[in-house]
Write a structure and sequence with these properties.
Layout (H helix, E strand, L loop, with lengths): L2 E5 L5 E5 H10 L3 E4 L5 H4 L13 E4 L3 H13 L4 E4 L15 E4 L6 E4 L4 E4 L5 H9 L3 E2 L10 H7 L6 H4 L6 E7 L5 E5 L4 H7 L8 E8 L1 E2 L3 E10 L3 H14 L4 E9 L14 E9 L3 H13 L5 E2 L2 E4 H5 L11 E9 L4 H11 L8 E6 L21 E9 L5 H15 L20 H5 L3 H11 L18
Parallel strand pairs: 4-6, 5-6
Antiparallel strand pairs: 1-2, 3-4, 7-8, 8-12, 9-13, 10-11, 10-12, 14-16, 14-17, 14-18, 15-16, 15-20, 19-21, 20-21
Helix pairs in contact: 8-11, 11-12
The structure holds flavin-adenine dinucleotide (FAD).
The site of flavin-adenine dinucleotide has 32 residues, from β5, α5 and β12.
Amino acid sequence: MAKIKMTTKDGAQTTINQETIEVFGAALRGDLLTAKSPGYEDARSIWNAMVDKRPGLIVRCAGAADVVRAVNFSRENNLLVAVQGMGHNIAGNAMCDGGIVISVSGLNSVRVDPRSQTVIAEPGVTLGAIDNETQQFGLATPVGINSTTGIAGLTLGGGFGWLSRKHGLTVDNLLAVDVVTADGELLRASADENSDLFWGIRGGGGNFGVVTSFEFKAHPLGPEVLSGLLIHPFSDVREVLNYYRKFAADAPEELTVWVVLRKAPPLPFLPEEVHGTEVVVLATVYAGDMADGEKALAPLRAFGNPIADVVGPHQFVDFQAGFDPLLTPGARNYWKSHDFLELSDGLLDTLVDFAGDLPSPHSEIFIAQMGGATNRIPADATAYRHRDTEFLMNVHGRWEDAADDDRCIAWCRKLFDATTPFATGGVYVNFMTEEEDARVPEAYGASYDRLVELKKKYDPTNLFRLNQNISPNGGR
Ligand SMILES: Cc1cc2nc3c(=O)[nH]c(=O)nc-3n(C[C@H](O)[C@H](O)[C@H](O)COP(=O)(O)OP(=O)(O)OC[C@H]3O[C@@H](n4cnc5c(N)ncnc54)[C@H](O)[C@@H]3O)c2cc1C
């Protein structure tokens, strides 16, 4: 009888009978793909083109029942398991070599209840779909800044974006989840039910099970918000950053301004001679009254000699998708990230040096402004720990050609090392690459030991190990 070669969760090789696989596939409402199935190549491709993994099986779940079946099948056959939301994570853990992928990307319903201002989303939903549904009712929940990112991975790591200074992280707005744990049980976790699991899910990544439903609270917003870009010439970079630092310190929580140091894309509102040259981008959203926003942003808009000021009223859903063209799937990407309490002179000097030597046209350094509501939650209230972070840097290396891998990755690592002395040591798990396992304890700080205890309770054999892994052995 034909057998399929598979990888076990400990990395050993094994085989499964074709018949066993057929019985499993027939029990699913969704699809089961092997390397020979039509659609396999598409199904294994994810956002970061550097990830090129070939799973033995891909289960495209059609509902929570399929997730239970897939978890049970994986556990009973001792398989290496990857869980896929929308496949955006830089580390590429949504795929695996030789194991089984439990994909929830097909579970994509969103249901808004305008009366209770809540939204229930399945794990295959994009941020764009959530914004689209909530904005119809004048509501929004804080998510990230690229509309094609998946809600599942984003939420499980913490989740931040333009609304976070006003309304907190995505996990701070999470009310409940349904989750299939390693033993195949479907549990509800909320403040009142399985509250230990609910604590761990809010930042602990995919370590505790497969989430099949998220319930969030939403807030009145828009549909138009004051938002847009201020673009300054790189020759003024230090003055702009000095001013930004002062401005950000006094900014109201409604206002968020991120800094992006990169080469100018060919945007229609930029003069042609600027395209492809280094610029300083200030990207901003005011999550409140338009007139108050105009007042709050006036000093920043009056500063210096920007090449472009395209701040104005924009539909929130449109602004949320505004960066999508720069973040399309299929490019090679490598990230490094740090948290900061402040933008010291030494840090700014280092950023300016490296921004003057970008390794490719699409690489960028971005500094997200955190603070506000994200910092008001006690550090031990959720597994996401770093409630003192004021600025979060992502070094985003992005290029097309594999021949540039070493050079671009080296630039990211060098910048990361050069900025380490200014960083808190904390890190956002969703910005960590596959090779950064050793940083997981730092990412959870003083909550790490509690997470290990939770892992022992809900996933003692570490079935869910392809993530920023919290080992039940507490390995550091
Ligand atoms: C272009 C881009 C922009 C981004 N911008 C932001 C931003 O503004 N703010 C922000 O906070 N983050 C941002 N991120 C990071 C983003 O939050 C993570 O990449 C996140 O993991 C993506 O979720 P996903 O479901 O698409 O990813 P996937 O790669 O599918 O999933 C990531 C991991 O999450 C786990 N997982 C996924 N689904 C489930 C589930 N249903 N149950 C249990 N575990 C699951 C698995 O371990 C999986 O490996 C951005 C990422 C990209 C690529």
